[in-house]
Amino acid sequence: MSRPRVLSGIQPTADSFHLGNYLGALRQWVAMQDSHDAFYCVVDLHAITVPQDPALLRRRTRVAAAQLFGAGLDPDRCTVFVQSHVPEHAELAWVLSCQTGFGEASRMVQFKDKSAKSGADTASVGLFTYPILQAADILLYQTDEVPVGEDQRQHLELTRDLAQRFNHRYGRTFVIPRPYILADVAKIADLQDPEIKMSKSASSPQGIIDVLEDPASIRRKIGRAVTDADAEIRADEKTKPGVTNLLRIYSALTGESVAALEKRYSGAGYGTLKKDLAEVVVDAFAPIRERTEQMLADEAQLDQMLAHGAARARKVAGPTMAAVRDRIGFLSPA
Ligand code: TYM
């Protein structure tokens, strides 16, 4: 029996992934490479929806790929590739954008949030159609499950709607994908402002922990994480969001339940909890950082691995795109 298909993507828009990316998505990617037929891409086409310096984009795309391998993705057990290496993504995005209502696209909250910063008039059309490109990423691979954080839920709903609409109009072409979102890690909070998610665009440097960050800095940031005045180590999302976030991170990285942590740290004080958590995070990231550096030391080999991934990805994306062209009524070239 064939394994269910999984696909997910991550943007190469920072010098490192952060703890939210790692717990909300990447760890599930690593776990799913054995239970699923897994495809993971570095989404450079998505990155250019906001201005990017070309040299920096190239660098960050390699750093992103190196971190994926560093975090445990194994090219023999899954397919890791760069989105722009598979031209079918952009092609399917165009076809799907012609199936998407303008009003439907206008309801995407991520566009509203991101364009609010610069003003909707100066935001690119690419930022507006971003979720349609994401739908293309997913649908090209006949994906069953998409492991992501909570912030991607609406984009997945759009993806499902587009797949259903296309199948209805043109005949069964796409698998209808399901989001795979783990409640406890779906929204890792900013360490300085636990009411918002940890985010490379919205968080202050003090609120975000990078996978590639040096241990002293990780310890400092966790030590200064915002908690509250009552000093009780207990999870309560509403009244104690800061402590809850720390407990969830701790639990996700060690496998010890939040309830067990509450019990173990009862009466211990925030300082002790933070100190221990800092070591947990440092220990989790040290091997990833080391392997990432090793991967980056041999760019030729890294590029080779990505070329290999792209070739495998095209073997799946190509036939899907051929079916789409045919269903739409495009004449095949003689
Ligand atoms: P991106 O690059 O912003 O983030 C990558 C993944 O990290 C998750 N994430 C979080 N999870 C928990 N807590 C947080 N604070 C947190 N911050 C980020 C995101 O939910 C995501 O899963 N649009 C996508 C990239 C994309 C994609 C795709 C994903 C493009 N095509 C196809 C899935 C399938 C994005 O911007 O992710």
Give the overall pLDDT as a whole number. Answer: 96
Written as H for each helix and E for each strand, in order along the chain, the element string is EHEHHEHHHHEHEHHHHH
Which percent range fits the helix content? 55-70%
Main beta sheet: 3 strands, parallel
Percentage of residues in strands: 5-15%
Count all strands and give the number.
Answer: 5
Radius of gyration equals 21 Å
What compounds are bound to the protein?
tryptophanyl-5'AMP
Unreliable segments of 5+ consecutive residues: none
Principal-axis shape equals: globular
Distance between the termini: 37 Å
Category by helix and strand content:
mainly alpha
Q: Helix segment count?
A: 13
Strand order of the largest sheet: 1-2-3
Give the arrangement of secondary structure elements.
Blueprint: E1 5-10, H1 19-35, E2 37-42, H2 44-47, H3 54-70, E3 79-82, H4 88-97, H5 102-106, H6 109-118, H7 125-140, E4 145-147, H8 153-170, E5 178-180, H9 215-223, H10 241-254, H11 258-264, H12 270-296, H13 299-328
Parallel strand pairs: 1-2, 2-3, 4-5
Residues 7-11, 20-21, 24-25, 43, 46, 134, 137-138, 146, 148-149, 151-152, 186-188, 197-199 line the site of tryptophanyl-5'AMP.
Note down, in words, how this protein is organized.
This protein is mainly α. The protein has helices at residues 19-35, 44-47, 54-70, 88-97, 102-106, 109-118, 125-140, 153-170, 215-223, 241-254, 258-264, 270-296, 299-328; strands at 5-10, 37-42, 79-82, 145-147, 178-180. Strand 1, helix 1 and strand 2 form a beta-alpha-beta unit. Helix 3 crosses helix 12 (270-296), helix 4 packs across helix 7 (125-140) and helix 10 (241-254) packs across helix 12 (270-296). The longest helix is centred in the C-terminal third of the chain and has 30 residues, at 299-328. The site of tryptophanyl-5'AMP has 25 residues, from strand 1, helix 1 and helix 7. Tryptophanyl-5'AMP binds at residues 7-11, 20-21, 24-25, 43, 46, 134, 137-138, 146, 148-149, 151-152, 186-188, 197-199.
